[in-house]
Specification:
By secondary structure, the chain is mostly helical. It is globular, with a radius of gyration of 16 Å. Helix 3 crosses helix 4 (57-89), helix 3 (29-53) crosses helix 5 (99-110) and helix 4 (57-89) packs across helix 8. The protein has helices at residues 2-13, 18-24, 29-53, 57-89, 99-110, 126-149, 153-176, 178-185.
Length: 186
């Protein structure tokens, strides 16, 4: 199970389109997609928490927690925005009854590149690295959405771009609360 999850995360990060054909036929893929998001959220929480800590232990601890929460909440916001844009505004795939589930499963794997957010704690390169990673996630998400809805890449990019932006803003907003919250509780 773990080997298969790692393999699928690597393939999603490598932008291998055949992955999405495979998971479409696998009823257990949704749980693996959620596990992928959990792994990525942990990595993003560690990297982001260490980046905002700047030597302060408690800021780091709260940053870790808010980083994990921020990434997971950002992904939830991402899927909501993607669902709304794809089904309401662009009316993609009206014949697919499991639109929300497809978005959750396909984009869960598309988050895989963000495991590299673990390295965001490096001074001077941490923030640019995370922005680059979010761009990579955006490309992976556009590919995943194109496959989920059998849509063209430009249409999928129109859905993925605002969804990734919402995800990015939610993650960074919660992460930046680390210092003020630490000051309140210590």
């Amino acid at each position: 199970m773990i080997d298969r999850l790692i393999d699928r995360m690597l393939r999603a990060a490598q932008l291998q389109v055949d992955l999405y054909h495979e998971i479409a036929a696998d009823p257990g893929a949704r749980l693996q997609a959620l596990a992928s998001v959990a792994v990525v959220a942990a990595a993003a929480g560690i990297g982001g928490g260490l980046r905002v800590a700047q030597g302060d232990f408690w800021v780091g601890v709260i940053g870790l927690l808010l980083g994990v929460l921020g990434y997971a909440a950002g992904w939830a916001l991402f899927t909501t925005v993607a669902y709304y844009l794809s089904t309401r505004l662009l009316a993609l795939a009206p014949e697919l009854p499991t639109t929300r589930e497809r978005i959750l499963t396909y984009t869960g794997f598309a988050q895989a590149p963000a495991v590299a957010s673990f390295f965001a704690f490096f001074p001077l390169v941490g923030l640019p690295l995370q922005l680059l990673i979010f761009g990579w996630v955006g490309v992976a998400a556009a590919q995943a959405l194109a496959e989920a809805f059998h849509a063209g890449s430009s249409t999928a990019a129109k859905v993925a771009a605002p969804a990734v932006l919402a995800h990015l803003l939610a993650y960074f907003a919660l992460l930046q609360l680390s210092v003020p919250i630490t000051r309140l509780v210590t």
